[in-house]
Write a structure and sequence with these properties.
The complex is a heterodimer. By secondary structure, chain A is mainly α. Chain A has helices at about 10-40, 60-65, 80-110, 115-125, 130-145, 150-180, 185-195, 200-210, 210-225, 230-235, 240-250, 255-275, 280-285. In chain B, about 75% of the residues lie in helices and about 0% in strands. The chains are: A mainly alpha, B mainly alpha.
């Protein structure tokens, strides 16, 4: 009997009814996402649900990828640069979160040391700490160590990545701890008896065994960096897709379907990951999310 | 030897032991980042709340000590400035209503998907995870168009088609305060529902199946099973999700930021305490970091008290090993 949930005596009719109700409740969600994506393929916004305003076109995508934010006027933005900036932040956060999370997760899962309980408690408390208060202090440090003008762009990238990754450490640690907890002790024990150091055991024996876990933390770190708005708009000198949308959505000159296209472009990794890694995303969400 | 010095020498000893242990090398990087990006910023925020820091002019203002002036100012504004008063009223309403949406919505989704086949349940749960995984700017954009005050807004489109309105209505700015509140609760509610849904779903999966089978054999309906088995078994989880979400909502601001900045919702009735702190510190024209820090310190105190109650209520050991199964 595969995956016994409710028992098989439930009636088909009541199941269909429940499905219908959930779908009805989910309708705003489905509508909102669909209309945004659809508007990007139309000459004018279709968000008012009026089919007569839908003129299919790929023009918006062409305009955006050429970096033109208005249909005719000459404002040009380097959209590929903006995408690259967003990617740099996302990849940087992903790498750092994965490194720190797998180190800390291992220590918390496998080692008994003085203060273990305190560190775990600290991680939980930090997870619930008000972000808006934090960002004020983090901005103070940012300004205290401001380098000469020519290095500021580099500094701001570095700072955004490290500061944003730091926020994800508690969650990444819990996630990795969960994966390390699943490996039987005997494997590690035999490696240690053979004379391997804990670092070697961690790197050569355990990490290869939890590749899905490492992938999950990487993906989760990537999405955290990719979707960020506040840290990027507060610290980064260069623009990302988030700040591009922030600046253009309500601007007087904005050609709305173009902003919708930018939004869809920005949404692409989320959608790709959703299709490619459904199980992984569920694991991530189960292991620790802040609502 | 007095008691306190015994304790401190013990703590010192423990610290030395930790530094010498192998684990400290695994933890060094994390502890460094936590120190630089959590502990020190918190201390700095407290310090800033005693300075007249404005416009991020650190050289000029950060060395001046003004005592409790920022706190007096904060409470004075709270008592006299309608736009600050409204922020706190909004915070209370927002937290209470969104919390209800999050907990009840998550519970309903978890229970409803329990009664349908696994494939459909998985698909629906993924759909409800989408808001949390969506870039914040895109998520805000979606609802910006949905509630847009002009004729391109989805709500306006629907109401117009139904013949209920003759010209577009401005929900977030025109219907004050409930229109603005409805939008921020709706938008954040959809993000938060998934947390409860996940915790409750894994808890339900851990309920012994014999209970459900026995009830079915006795002819129990879905409603009976929900009321007599599922909800009573989830009591502890409901408490856990409620307190955790309460803390999270009190500190939420990123999903509200653009809605306010784009003018979709009224500034006074769309801003919560957390967002007020961020905007006071960073938005052009305000840039009053001393005041923001004071408001922040008070928020930290309030949420620490709530967090402490949460830990007490839950028992810390239970939190270390959260009551959910491995999914």
């Amino acid at each position: 009997m595969p995956g016994m949930r409710d028992v098989e005596v439930r009636s088909r009719a009541s199941e269909a009814l429940i499905l219908l109700v959930i779908l009805a409740v989910s309708l705003p969600l489905i509508t909102g996402y669909s209309l945004l994506i659809l508007s990007g393929f139309s000459k004018s916004m279709v968000t008012n649900l009026d089919p007569s305003s839908f003129y299919p076109t790929l023009m918006n995508w062409i305009l955006l990828l050429q970096g033109r934010t208005a249909q005719f006027a000459g404002i040009r933005v380097n959209i590929w640069g903006i995408v690259a900036n967003t990617l740099v932040v996302a990849l940087g956060v992903s790498a750092l979160v994965t490194l720190v999370g797998s180190l800390t997760g291992y220590a918390v899962s496998r080692m008994n040391f003085a203060g273990r309980k305190h560190i775990m408690m600290l991680l939980i408390l930090l997870h619930a700490f008000p972000g808006s208060v934090l960002v004020v202090g983090v901005a103070f440090i940012y300004r205290m160590f401001m380098p000469p003008l020519e290095y500021i762009r580099f500094y701001s990238f570095f700072y955004v990545i490290v500061a944003r990754a730091a926020i994800e450490i508690p969650m990444a640690t819990w996630l990795m701890k969960g994966f390390f907890d699943m490996i039987p002790w005997e494997i590690e024990w035999s490696a240690i008896v053979d004379g391997a150091s804990r670092f070697r055991v961690w790197w050569n024996v355990l990490l290869p065994m939890i590749k899905p876990g490492v992938a999950a933390v990487m993906l989760f770190g990537f999405l955290a960096g990719w979707m960020d708005l506040i840290y990027v708009r507060t610290f980064l000198v260069d623009r990302t897709l988030a700040t591009f949308i922030e600046a253009n959505a309500e601007a007087e000159y904005a050609y709305l379907p173009l902003v919708a296209v930018a939004g869809t472009l920005y949404l692409l990794p989320t959608i790709i990951f959703f299709i490619a890694a459904q199980r992984l995303i569920f694991t991530i969400s189960v292991s620790g999310i802040k609502g | 030897m007095p008691k306190s010095s015994v304790f401190s020498s013990k703590a010192l000893h423990g610290f030395k032991q930790f530094v010498r242990s192998e684990a400290s090398r695994f933890l060094a990087l994390a502890l460094f980042l936590v120190a630089v990006f959590y502990i020190i910023p918190i201390c700095i925020s407290v310090y800033m709340s005693f300075t007249p820091l404005r416009n991020w002019n650190i050289d000029r203002y950060a060395g001046i000590f003004v005592g409790l002036e920022n706190y007096y100012r904060f409470f004075y504004l709270l008592a006299n400035d309608p736009s600050v008063k409204s922020v706190f009223l909004t915070t209370a309403v927002f937290v209470a209503l969104t919390l209800a949406v999050n907990v009840l919505g998550g519970l309903s989704l978890a229970i409803a998907t329990f009664f349908v086949n696994e494939r459909a349940a998985g698909g629906l749960q993924l759909l409800w995870l989408l808001p949390r995984m969506t870039p914040i700017a895109v998520y805000s954009l979606i609802w910006y168009y949905f509630f847009h005050p002009s004729s391109i807004g989805t709500i306006n489109g629907i109401l117009y088609k139904l013949g209920l309105i003759s010209k577009p209505i401005d929900i977030g700015q025109g219907i004050i305060p409930w229109g603005a509140w409805a939008i921020i609760v709706f938008v954040n509610g959809l993000v938060g529902v998934s947390y409860g849904m996940i915790v409750f779903t894994s808890a339900i999966n851990n309920i012994p199946k014999e209970l459900v089978i026995a009830a079915r054999v006795d002819g129990a309906s879905n409603w009976d099973i929900t009321r007599k088995i599922l909800v009573p078994m989830l009591r502890w989880h409901i408490l856990y999700v409620t307190t955790w979400q309460l803390l999270s909502l009190l500190t939420t601001y990123d999903h509200l930021f653009l809605l306010v900045k784009w003018g979709l919702v009224n500034r006074d009735y769309g801003t919560t305490w957390s967002l007020y702190i961020y905007n006071t510190a960073f938005l052009t024209g305000l840039q009053d970091q001393g005041l923001a820090a004071a408001a922040g310190v008070i928020l930290v105190i309030v949420s620490s008290i709530l967090g402490f109650i949460t830990l007490k209520l839950m028992g810390f050991d239970k939190l270390i090993k959260p009551p959910r199964g491995d999914l």
